[in-house]
Amino acid sequence: MSEKSKTQKESAAQWKDIKPLRTMIDSLPKISADITFDDVFTLSLSDVSPQNASVIKDCALALRSWRKGPFQIGELFIDSEWQSFIKYNILRPHFNLKDKKVADIGCNNGYYLFKMLQEEPKKLVGFDPTPLFWCQFDFINHFAQTKIVYELLGVEDLKEYGEKFDTIFCLGVLYHRSDPIGCLKSLKSALERDGELFLDTFVIDGDEDIALCPKNRYSKISNIYFIPTVNTLKNWCDRVGFKNFELLCIKPTTSDEQRKTEWILGESLENFLDPNNNSKTIEGYPAPKRAYVKVSL
User: What is the architecture of the domain spanning 83-296?
Assistant: First the structure.
């Protein structure tokens, strides 16, 4: 089976699986909410009956796995796998989104987009082709009632999207692309003339112009293709035509940031590392470490 036909088959299966979820989301009670922009994105609901609280919780559980978050909806706390505010708080001192058109590529359930509402951007658009994540976004937005636009599209669709952005975030995507330079070109094509791009991606230590190419899996993930040194990442950005490469932070992934909770199905970080040596993945590669980078045109 070709890679394209395999992807189409998986996509069709996902769409079939979400039909009951769409029905549940459409049946959610209409309740007004007040937003609080803490590390936990909080929606305070008014006058929630025990029956409606049960409906909301059942829908949220059906939408597992919740990777990004956390969220608080009324009395319901969705303790996501990732403490996503850690990443957001790393990046926040380095951007000003007021009155800007902003895109989040690979936005998952929109946690970062919801958080960015407090920055008063002109427009927020999320791109992610995964139907489950779209459903999670719509579940949250049912109560938040924001004007965030969610597109079931990937980074490869940016060139044909027809709209450019002042600021683009592409967090945790680059290592999933078999052509990282092509991915960076797509991101560049969607930026306004003075636009800026925020990236986070796995990196390995070293000053050489090299990248790790895992044999089969990295940290039990099959679609990880290239993990560069920071110098190699800079070279990729230079080749594409980005300027002002700024390394904001390098941070190892720890259980404080990623861990298994009742809100995910399957394994998490503790299962991806060598149980006898947490500096290595289960496959023997260097454990996950991320570089946070800002580049501009």
Answer: 3-Layer(aba) Sandwich (3.40)
**Does the structure show a pLDDT above 50 at 6?**
no
Distance in Å from the first CA to the final CA of the chain: 40
What DSSP letter does each residue of 3-69 carry, written as one string? HHHHHHHHHHHHHHHHHHHHHHHHTS----EEEEESSSEEEEESS--HHHHHHHHHHHHHT----S-
Token pair belonging to 289: 């470490």
Q: Where are the domains of the chain?
A: 83-296
Specify the length of the chain in residues.
Answer: 297
Taking CA atoms, 268 is separated from 97, 170, 175, 262, in Å, by: 32, 22, 18, 11
Which H or E run contains 116?
helix 111-116
Each residue of 132-177: pLDDT tens digit?
A: 999 999 999 999 999 999 999 999 999 999 999 999 999 999 999 9
pLDDT digits (tens, 9 = 90+) for 78-92: 999 999 999 999 999
Token digits for 31? 């309740």
Radius of gyration of the chain (CA): 19
* 177 contacts 186 by C-beta, under 8 angstroms: no
Q: Are 191 and 165 in contact (CB under 8 A)?
A: yes
Q: State the Cα–Cα distance between residues 80 and 82, nearest whole angstrom.
A: 5
Residue 207 backbone phi and psi in degrees, to 5:
-100, -5
Query: What distance separates the 2 farthest-apart alpha carbons in the chain?
Result: 60
Strand partners, 82: 258
